[in-house]
Amino acid sequence: MPERKRQTPDKGRPANPAPRGRPPRRERNFAAIRGGEDTEFRRRILIAAAEIFAERGFAAASIDEVAKRLDATKGLVYHRYRSKGELLTDVCEDGLDRLTARLDEIAGRREPAITRLTEAAAFHAGQVIGEIALHRTLAEVTSFAASSGRSDEEARAVAALTARRQAYDAIFTALIDDAADQRDLPAGRDTRMLGRIFIGALDAPLHWPPETLSELAEKRDLIARQLAYFAIRGAGASDATLMAEFSR
Amino acid sequence: MPERKRQTPDKGRPANPAPRGRPPRRERNFAAIRGGEDTEFRRRILIAAAEIFAERGFAAASIDEVAKRLDATKGLVYHRYRSKGELLTDVCEDGLDRLTARLDEIAGRREPAITRLTEAAAFHAGQVIGEIALHRTLAEVTSFAASSGRSDEEARAVAALTARRQAYDAIFTALIDDAADQRDLPAGRDTRMLGRIFIGALDAPLHWPPETLSELAEKRDLIARQLAYFAIRGAGASDATLMAEFSR
Question: Which spans does this entry mark as compositional bias, Basic and acidic residues (chains A, B) (predicted)?
């Protein structure tokens, strides 16, 4: 197993000068929140929570474990999230916000659809490799096979997140449609199914073992391009089109 | 959510005639085991266990839940499996036995490598759609991000299962290599990475939402061929080759 990266609080810099030595850890963490490091702390919670959800699955994950990984007290996390369902929702919403913002930007460019699709594919594959815990969490949420053991509130949150993820995936399908209209992909096919297969291929790293992923982290952009090439070719692009798109 | 298929014991046929009405359920189930329905009961346990593992994740799954889904007593399952780790191992080993036996048969045929690769790809994709719970369980095991909370025995079992799954995946990579040697796929590439991407594309249905999967169950072979086509084209097959392979 490769050594895991852990986010630990920056113990060397308490938010306020401490005349009689450093305050106990609990006090220091509250001081950090009061000191306006709110956004950064939220980000750290979300990263740790995605890791715990990805490793343990939602059902077995707990806020305790998230706090432990952060080296923070449980209360600090409960201060923001009343339940792990809320925490899961925030992890996924934050992730989907960032993914969707970037994908919208790429899809909105004034370029041929095939060029935007290629960029979008490489972007998504790179994100999966780079933020594997987030993407495993998103995958778990959107493929929940049953709602057993879930409250109504959780079921509603899962439905809303699934709809958002499907809207994100639909951007790929729309780009495939546009590329077909522009004759850079074959026309007249069921692109709803093709879109699902396309995004599934880009999600391949979800199942790679941890050693493979850490080994590939530094070659992230290269592997992302390779995944994009496979998917664009799989979707039917000609070798001339591939040559044009991947020689940029 | 679509209605879930549940395996319930065939209550209408107790193993032995019951002169004074049917025995209580517990007694009937033991009677079934004594009556030699061992293999069939094991299969039912494995199906139910794969469903529970896939829905809840390993960490949150319990033998209790498996027994409940089977409408059997906990003791009946513990009679065979001392821990859920053993149960997970049996689910995965049984699944990998069946997958590997069939894949070996396809890979060993006297046909061009590209033909065997096409058949192997369609077979695997069909299995993923048809036995989604097993495949989600296998995917969870082989992509375990950390061994936290796992005993040494469980960690060893996970390592052994991961190795078996990698051996299964390696059959695809070997077929890609052979197809490249036979000039039906481009030569001179890093086929280790390509193999990972190839199998990842075929695993796409792992993340499809339950509605999509149940909607597609009856079109399983068609979708499996579509996934295989995408993957074979993604891997670099020419349109002439694709035409030959997919017009059979």
Answer: 1-13
